[in-house]
Amino acid sequence: MADVILETKNLTKEFKGFTAVNDVDLRVQRGHIHALIGPNGAGKTTCFNLLTKFLVPTSGQILFNGRDITRDKPAQIARQGIIRSFQISAVFPHLTVLQNVRIGLQRELGTSFHFWRSEGSLSSLDERAMALLDEVDLSSFADTVTADLPYGRKRALEIATTLAMEPELMLLDEPTQGMGHEDVHRVTALIKKVSQGRTILMVEHNMNVVSGICDRISVLQRGAMLAEGTYAEVSKNPQVMQAYMGTADGELEAGHA
Ligand SMILES: Nc1ncnc2c1ncn2[C@@H]1O[C@H](COP(=O)(O)OP(=O)(O)OP(=O)(O)O)[C@@H](O)[C@H]1O
Ligand SMILES: [Mg+2]
């Protein structure tokens, strides 16, 4: 029996009669980097919004560590360890890199913030912040104003602020979107690195990234689950190839992305 951290059962979301997510059964194994792929409009982001409770499902169930979280609120989900990057953890451009991570840590502390203050342990907060920066290879940028960071480094900072919230499951929606070759490489390696001891579910269009680091891939098409398996399996699936043919020629071929 696989150790499933996240599972959806018949997950469905309708918008005024239009079914954006249709009867989706998704199973994410603990410790995996799991990719959610599919042509534009397939329902990937809607799926993410359901998982993080930004949207309420029309029907179906979401289980996290075997527990039904379908009716939980966004804050409850986050407290349980499901953290979505590049959304909750928006960074403040006028603050330094270190200040941004500290804010992330304080947010994570929540009500226990007073404990830190009374202990006078702001320096240990700094220590933890520096350790997180080190983890994403940003130590040398600690005092840089965030707005001055190169694009790929900003994404690394966003990952650090997500890590500050101690995620058990990280959700990344197109983490390499809009990046040049070098940044894609850097952020991909970073995702692989921070996946140690965690689980990652990511939407990704770049098939080099998917084939390079993802253990398992689910393919959505028009809201429904079309295929699931390893990259080798789904990339050979005739239905998947056909689904992609209409959008970008050879998009499923790593090396073309
Ligand atoms: N709030 C909404 N109201 C109505 N329709 C919506 C809403 N949100 C999404 N949709 C529709 O649901 C479908 C799925 O959209 P979604 O954004 O989930 O796709 P996606 O797979 O993330 O696409 P992309 O690759 O372009 O990011 C689309 O047809 C979209 O127009
Ligand atoms: Mg999307």
From TrEMBL:
GO terms for molecular function: ATP binding; ATP hydrolysis activity. PROSITE patterns: ABC_TRANSPORTER_2 (PS50893). It comes from the Bacteria. GO terms for cellular component: plasma membrane. Keywords: ATP-binding, Cell membrane, Membrane, Nucleotide-binding, Transport. InterPro entries: AAA+_ATPase, ABC_AA/LPS_Transport, ABC_transporter-like_ATP-bd, BCA_ABC_TP_C, P-loop_NTPase. Residues 6-247 form the ABC transporter domain. This is ABC transporter ATP-binding protein. It comes from Massilia litorea.
